[in-house]
Amino acid sequence: MSQDTLTLAAIRHELIEELLGGRVQRVVRPTELSIGLEIYTGQRQQVLLSAEAQSARIALTEERLRRGADSTSPLQLLLRKYVRGARLVALEQPDLERIVRWRFEGSEGVVDLVCEVMGRLSNLILVDSDGAILDAAKRIPARINRYREILPGVAYVPPPPQDKAHPLHVSAAELGTLLAEQSGGLHRRLVNAVLGVSPLLAREIVHRAVGEDNDWPLTDESLIRLHEVLQTMMRLPQTHAWEPSVGYQEQAVQRTAVDRTAADRTAVAYAPYALTHLDAWEPIDSVARAAALTLGPMRPPDPYAQARADLIALIDDQLERQRGQLASLERAAVAPDELEELQFRGNAILALAWQIAPGQESLQVTRAEVTGEAGPGAADPITIPLDPALTPSENAQAVFREYRKRVAASEQVPRRMAHVEAEIRYLEQLRTDAALAEDRAALDQVREALHEAGYTPRQGRRRGQPAASEPLRIPLEDGVTILVGRNSRQNDEVTFRQSGPRDLWLHVRGAPGAHVIVRHGAQTVSDEIIAQAASLAAYYSALREESQVPVDITERRHVKRIPGGRPGMVTYRQEETRVVAPQPPPEDDG
């Protein structure tokens, strides 16, 4: 489960009491995107800091953490340098943010380890005393996020603030207005309107205030009660009136002829408050330690779990290879100033050849001598290395050969990088297709797409293999139909074969996901239908677990296939963006 801002506040409160002043003795890497710290405070304490998309968290564990990842990451090496042997001197959490800054002071100075616990956007970022990033568990270049680069040497910038109301600065009347602007059940309205409110917390607030997730609107009395409960809960970081608990889901199961049924319960959540809205709950001593528990699934077991995991592992392997190739190309890329410097060197050798004596190993020049430049730096001395075994003309020709070689590379590398980046986007789409596949047929389609893209050999067709899965079709009133492509081939199908030029086309912004079509036949499309389609686009995407997702909307005529691209890969223009909460189709809701 995701750790919300209240859970992190309670964990921070516990860790300040237990760990502050302790010295870091070990730094290990249990998984690719997690770090384990052993902190000595008179006894050894094991701290897990995870940025894994499905299990991002801060936790105290009873067992000694051990290495799980095969290699040592650059972040781990830097943590060994700056944090091992250092003391934990502060733990800070910005107001209502899912961020905890761990400040360490040691022989190498003061550094902050910023833990951003935000689902698939989670990260662990080491920052120096000047605010510059030393390294991170996940590096994010500008081509992925222009607002917020996460790279060594770049200044650390916090995540952008959410456009929601502060729970402690809103009146009951203002809360009512904000909730009225949202859609869905009451708990969804709370999540979408109020800062720091997670789905789990929203359900608890609604249960305490009105007893159940009532349809909108509320009575004045219920709204006042909802406002009071919201404020009480969101003041917990100041009041410290924590009630840590584990919540359970109960299910009746057959036992014996005598005891025909019995309650079989599974731990499904933990929180720093009593989880009264669940089937059952029990108080616990520590939220930070509860975070290390393995919680049972809230959804039915996945019958295709192993097949899904194997397919995702196969895609991840191909993604790793493509990203490695992209990194090699980035290293091989030639900067314009490098070409300019080579050209200058060749011209300088030719222009001042008369000064070069046989066997000379370098040439001292200025830009003013060669190009006639004036101004700052024009008179600064520049040293050009020479091969003493060559004549001045031969030295110049050697430089120009290198120049032509770099020019050729500068022309080829961007094209190759664009191709590899497109392959990475396609593989990321296939990974999302596999993660969201609802049956064996959908998984088989992803495997077939991998084969057709040349990534895997074809496997023999199994007898009785399911037919290809079809796009989701949701008929609405007035002849309007929503079509949802749930994998790459379905995306291509709904966009270019099952829709008209004026139909609406929707796709989650900046992440893999479904192409959603609102086929309206020249009918006026209501804002409610557009909101429903946008919520479906968010739900059938890699951002499904986020509370708010940006979705782009345009007419289908503005969507074009990428020339030479894989199925479902498109460009589009004249879009508008709407931020929505992911919601499943009506028959799957709840």
Features:
590 residues, 5-stranded antiparallel β-sheet, 22 strands, globular
Describe the structure.
The protein has helices at 5-19, 74-82, 172-180, 186-193, 199-210, 220-234, 236-239, 287-290, 305-332, 336-351, 367-371, 392-436, 440-452, 488-496, 527-539, and strands spanning 23-28, 34-40, 44-50, 57-61, 87-92, 99-106, 109-116, 123-127, 133-136, 245-254, 261-271, 280-283, 362-365, 382-385, 472-475, 481-484, 504-508, 516-519, 549-555, 559-561, 570-572, 576-580. The protein is α+β, with helices and mostly antiparallel strands and 590 residues long. It has four domains: 5-136, ibrinogen binding protein from staphylococcus aureus domain (ibrinogen binding protein from staphylococcus aureus fold), CATH 2.30.310; 172-290, no CATH class; 301-460; 472-588, no CATH class. A six-stranded antiparallel β-sheet has the order 15-16-18-17-19-22. Strands 5-6-7-8-9 form a five-stranded antiparallel β-sheet, with helices on one face. The protein has a four-stranded antiparallel β-sheet with strand order 1-2-3-4. The chain starts with a helix and ends in a 10-residue tail after the last strand. Mean pLDDT is 87; it is low at 253-262 and 461-466.
Summary, kept brief:
With 590 residues, the chain is an alpha+beta fold. The protein has helices at residues 5-19, 74-82, 172-180, 186-193, 199-210, 220-234, 236-239, 287-290, 305-332, 336-351, 367-371, 392-436, 440-452, 488-496, 527-539; strands at residues 23-28, 34-40, 44-50, 57-61, 87-92, 99-106, 109-116, 123-127, 133-136, 245-254, 261-271, 280-283, 362-365, 382-385, 472-475, 481-484, 504-508, 516-519, 549-555, 559-561, 570-572, 576-580.
